[in-house]
Amino acid sequence: MAEPIRLEVVTPDKMVLSEDVDIVVATGTEGEFGVLRNHIPFLTTLQEGELRYRKGGKLEYMAVTGGFAEVLPDKVTVLAEAAEHAREIDIDRAERARERAEKRLVDARREELDHIRAEAALKRALIRLKIARKIAEG
Ligand code: ATP
Predict the structure, then answer these.
(1) What is the per-residue pLDDT for 112?
(2) Which of 30, 62, 102, 108 has the most neighbouring CB atoms within 10 Å?
(3) Are 9 and 51 in contact (CB under 8 A)?
(4) In angstroms, what is the span from residue 77 Cα to ligand 1's centroid?
(5) What is the residue with the minimal CA distance to atom 13 of ligand 1?
(6) What residue spans in the chain does CATH classification 2.60.15.10 cover?
(7) For the CA of 94, the nearest atom of ligand 1
(8) 29 CA distance to ligand 1 centroid (A)?
(9) Which one-letter DSSP state was computed for residue 42?
(10) Domain 5-86's class?
(11) Which atom of ligand 1 is nearest to the CA of 96?
(12) Tens-of-pLDDT digits for all 138 residues of the chain?
């Protein structure tokens, strides 16, 4: 059995996760990447997406928004704007956020900043919905 690697997921509000895991797969801006212990160090920005990790044969999913990841041989640190375990995502809340963002995208057509904000909110909502539904469907 391979040695575990420490995974820490931190947001401005809290330490969301700090655990020894077998493998981490995250969504970088240049695509998905997987990390086992003793991986060569690197730093990457993240995009809204899935972060999954396996621990003792169990696969866990998280929704991660923005930020970056630092990979060291014995540790992966994810610094994100927001991160939620799939099972903690409130689907109704994310649906409401999606609807609000879609409406704002229509209303904000001419206001660039509002448009950018609404697009970011929509991406957050969509990734939360995707990941929450993925585990709901098994
Ligand atoms: P909302 O408009 O519903 O607040 P948001 O995208 O603006 O959504 P964020 O600013 O990204 O929310 O997050 C604020 C906090 O709420 C973070 O701690 C985030 O993890 C949490 N959060 C946001 N949406 C959900 C959700 N659908 N389920 C569980 N936690 C959520």
Answers:
(1) 82
(2) 62
(3) yes
(4) 21
(5) 82
(6) 5-86
(7) 27
(8) 21
(9) E
(10) mainly beta
(11) 3
(12) 679 999 999 999 999 999 999 999 999 999 999 999 999 999 999 999 999 999 998 999 999 998 999 999 999 999 999 999 999 999 999 999 999 999 999 886 667 888 899 999 999 999 999 999 988 886
Decide if 65 contacts 80 (C-beta within 8 A): yes
The atom of ligand 1 lying closest to the CA of 90 is 28
Full-model pTM: 0.92
Helix and strand totals (H; E) in the chain: 2, 10
Which mutation among 61, 85, 93, 123 tests ligand 1's pocket best, with the greatest number of atoms within 8 A of CB?
A: 93
The angle formed by the CA atoms of residues 1, 26 and 101, to the nearest 5 degrees, is 150
